[in-house]
Design brief:
The protein is α/β, with parallel strands linked by helices. It has 16 helices and 21 strands. It folds into three domains: 175 residues, 3-Layer(bba) Sandwich (FAD/NAD(P)-binding domain), CATH 3.50.50; 107 residues, FAD/NAD(P)-binding domain (3-Layer(bba) Sandwich), CATH 3.50.50.60; 105 residues, FAD/NAD-linked reductase, C-terminal dimerisation domain (Enolase-like, domain 1, 2-Layer Sandwich), CATH 3.30.390.30. The chain is 30% helix and 25% strand. The longest helix is centred in the first third of the chain and has 18 residues. The N and C termini lie far apart (68 Å).
Length: 464
């Protein structure tokens, strides 16, 4: 059995859905192939459930900062209610609503595993083993996302450790949790479980600080906050082995030069790898298992004819849901024959760590800007040193920083730490993407009393 469409999208996560929906809006006939849940990792096992676990305790912490409110807080956090709320946010792992949206948008849905079998051809294998061949008149888009990466530590693969999927769908809070990795997933879930009632949470990070890809002050301030929550933060430490005698038994994480960590569960959060295995890439001259290199039109390099595109985590440009959706819109425009190139995900890539305090950043770090050869100058101001932050309660602190290209007098990077600073980030994204001169930005007056007044103080610190 064979069907033909203008566009075939392999992968029904946020990026794949956006390609499909926008391509249909352009008048193209589209098929979407997905073997798991429509909505992908973000909807069910990552962004949404992790934030649902973090938000209740963030609200409690915010209330406790206000003496006039803190006295009204009585009783204990209802952990079971938090877990039920998380399940509601993830639709109880039911994608019926997503399917209705896909079909309502006019996209043909093919349930099964999609594999490339040749130029513009995709074979779909359903759960019952039956196959269907699809042909693409214009192009095929790979949007299969990423999976948790597991380091080659002896005993880890056999230990029954968690990755993000087990952690975000757990039915109970472990009494003792060890977290291998101090990146975004590691720190968010470490704080979530510490605040939800885990008696012992230990984070082990091989780099010298948490969030090693962000500004040093961000990792340092976050480590201090985690320790205040009772988390044992160990940086500059390498894991050498994992031991677990049987399922359900305690797990031991052995560390080089440090005391071992014994826990009831071990969460592996050391990064992501592209989900490009078993896609038939060899059939079109590519190698399975790695990121798919693309140009700025999202076309995969090394494939003649420009008919194969890749969007989202799978191309390695930016492993974030919002940038995957951005790339998806570009790819749909390209397939519709419209002039479009992706550059925002390279120049002004926004990212938020939803811990308390939050870490929000966009564009280049100071170190990256210097490595790029820019005439760098930086300015900093205390996030908590403006009236809007003082009104949030006692102990509100953090750091706000701008990285400036002195030759052009424009911002190329920004970073903020503090409660809720993710909501301040879009202003920085606009300034960087639009290359707004600082002399112009000076006239963008922040409202008083908001935390965004820190923008005024940063510009003043730069001599405006």
């Amino acid at each position: 059995m064979e069907r033909s469409y203008d566009v075939i999208v392999i992968g029904g996560g946020p990026a794949g859905e956006n390609v499909a929906g926008r391509a249909v809006e352009h008048g193209l006939e589209v098929a979407l192939v997905e073997e798991e849940l429509l909505g992908g990792e973000c909807s069910y096992w990552a962004c949404m459930p992790s934030k649902a676990l973090l938000r209740p305790t963030e609200v409690l912490a915010a209330a406790r900062r206000l003496p006039s409110v803190a006295a009204a807080l009585t009783g204990e956090l209802d952990v079971e209610a938090v877990l039920r709320s998380r399940d509601a946010f993830t639709s109880h792992l039911d994608d019926t609503g997503q399917q209705q949206w896909i079909e309502g948008a006019g996209v043909a849905l093919e349930r099964g595993r999609g594999r490339l079998t040749g130029e513009r051809r995709v074979e779909v294998t359903r759960a019952d083993g039956q196959t269907t061949t699809l042909g693409a008149r214009r192009g095929v888009v790979v949007a299969t996302g990423s999976r948790a990466a597991w380091p080659p530590i002896p005993g880890l693969a056999e230990s029954g450790a968690w990755d993000n999927r087990e952690a975000t769908t757990t039915k109970e809070v472990p009494r003792r949790l060890a977290v291998l990795g101090g990146g975004v997933v590691g720190v968010e879930l470490a704080q979530a479980f510490a605040r939800l009632g885990s008696a012992e949470v230990t984070v082990v990070e091989m780099a010298e600080r948490l969030l090693p890809r962000e500004e040093p002050f961000a990792g340092e301030e976050l480590a201090e906050a985690l320790r205040a929550d009772g988390v044992d933060v160990r940086t500059g430490v390498r894991a050498t082995a994992v031991e677990r005698t049987q399922p359900g038994a305690p797990v031991t994480l052995r560390l080089e030069g440090h005391d071992d960590v014994e826990a009831d569960e071990l969460l592996v959060a050391v990064g992501r790898r592209p989900a490009t295995d078993d896609l038939g890439l060899e059939q079109v001259g590519l190698t399975s298992g790695g990121f798919l290199d693309v140009d700025d039109t999202l076309r995969v390099t090394g494939v003649d004819g420009g008919w194969l595109l890749a969007v989202g985590d799978v191309n390695g440009r930016s492993l974030l849901t919002h940038t995957g959706k951005y790339q998806a819109r570009i790819a749909a425009d390209v397939l519709a024959g419209r002039p479009a190139t992706a550059w925002g995900d390279r120049k002004a890539n926004p990212r938020v760590v939803f811990t308390d305090p939050q870490v929000a950043a966009v564009g280049l770090t100071e170190a990256e800007a210097r490595e790029a050869g820019l005439a760098v100058r930086t300015v900093r101001y205390g996030t908590g040193d403006v009236a809007g932050a003082v009104l949030l309660g006692k102990g509100v602190a953090g750091t706000s920083q701008l990285v400036i290209d002195g030759d052009r007098d424009v911002i190329v990077g920004a970073a903020f730490t503090g409660p809720g600073v993710g909501e301040m980030l879009h202003a920085a994204t606009i300034a960087i993407a639009g290359e707004v001169p600082l002399d112009v930005l000076w006239h963008a007056v922040p409202a008083f009393p908001t935390v965004s007044e820190v923008w005024l103080r940063l510009l003043e610190a730069d001599g405006r």
